[in-house]
Amino acid sequence: MFRQVVRPLQRVRFYSTEPPLMAEVRNSLKAAMRSGDNVGKTTIRAVMAAVKNANIEKPDSVSTDLGLHSLLNSLISKREKSIEEYIKGKREDLADGERAEIKVLEALQSKIPVASSEEIDAKVKEFIDGLGVEGKVPMGKVLSQLNWPEVEANWKASQKSVVASVKRVLGARSFSTSARQLSHENPLGIPRRRHNQPIISKQRIRNVKNILLVSSAKGGVGKSTVAVNLALGLYMQGYTTGVLDVDIFGPSIPTLLQLDGEPKITAEGNLVPLMNYGIKAMSMGFLVPPQRAVAWRGLLVQKALQQLLFEVDWGELDYLVIDMPPGTGDVQLTIAQQLEVDGAIVVSTPQDIALIDAVRGIDMFNTVKIPILGLVQNMSVFVCPHCAGTTHIFGHDGAVIAAEKRGITVLASLPLSSDIAQGGDGGLPVVFEDPKQSPSAKAYLDLASTVSAQLHEMQVAA
């Protein structure tokens, strides 16, 4: 018989170099224990566990103070996300707990000497100039020439922050229509100098005096056409005007305004609107290749919307007209929760099936307490291009009657005519093409006058 040999189990150790600052982190833990600082104890232990786990998963991944700085950044970001969720759930007590932990993490972070975004950008510009490449420099060439160990040691900058700087300096934007490849914090891939802050309350768009929503709960009622021609009508009254297309999945503004190309990015990391016919415009359509479908879920849509709302450099605007997607879903609720809106315009046709959804849209605005300026009845009557005869194709004044029943002002009844359709398809809005002679253009100009007067009246009454 063979004798069974039992060998004792051997302990396996994972050896990894810790960041030099970890000695001070342990001292901070001891100080927190002596002083009875429970928040400090919990947070510092979480940092130590995160460092250990990171180095087990990938040895030496957090072996420098810069690596620790990046890890602390990610821990802060997680807590900021939690704060957003707690505020939505009206749990301010839990949000305060996360804020207290962020203070501890930021105190640890402040002990690590790290170059600022401006300092890193200066180093990157100097490095790119030294490459001696004429014209546009490919981002891949820059990154392939960098000696990363020397960069981290001499520039006091992590690889991630240097890559972000190269994108800023070259004006590059990383973007994917696939949800798997995206950062949930920055789905539009805008190069940033600043750390993204959570939006915890309603706010204005910087330098914009009046914000108008053009909305319809039903698709196909001409909402985008109304939004563009309204914006142009306001511009022709002498107002500085912009139009923002927040339809993530089906943007129409690029076609209606005959605009294409990718927006530039400011030094601060904000998108610069494109411009045509005197008005500024921003749309998801400028950021996505025309034939590519965006396959995103709710959180990515919400974050992309936040970027379109608050990371665009509009300059000074009297009016920003926001072209909403159809329905009463994520985009509408996000705007209601995060944006200070001056008034909403509901667009409908006289058709019964459109009116059912228009009523839902009106109810939504009333629920979220966004003031309704009024209703626009679009395609109210068909105007024959040959004889100028009129026909009520979609019914007679159904939207007008529905609005009057609910005490809502009817701002305009707009015709359905071939010049509006042809102008939209050709990127030449009817208001701009023939503002003096066309009855359709006159109807939109009258709408712009009515909207500005109605908004002024509401603001005075408030």
UniProtKB/TrEMBL annotation:
GO cellular component: mitochondrion
Example of a GO MF term: metal ion binding
SUPFAM superfamilies with a match to the protein in the record: GatB/YqeY motif, P-loop containing nucleoside triphosphate hydrolases
Locations listed in the record: Mitochondrion
Keywords: ATP-binding, Iron, Iron-sulfur, Metal-binding, Mitochondrion, Nucleotide-binding
PROSITE patterns per UniProt: MRP (PS01215)
GO biological process: iron-sulfur cluster assembly; mitochondrial respiratory chain complex I assembly
Family per record: Belongs to the Mrp/NBP35 ATP-binding proteins family. Belongs to the AIM41 family.
Name of the protein this chain belongs to: Altered inheritance of mitochondria protein 41
Species annotation: Wickerhamiella sorbophila
Lineage, broadest ranks: Eukaryota, Fungi, Dikarya, Ascomycota, Saccharomycotina
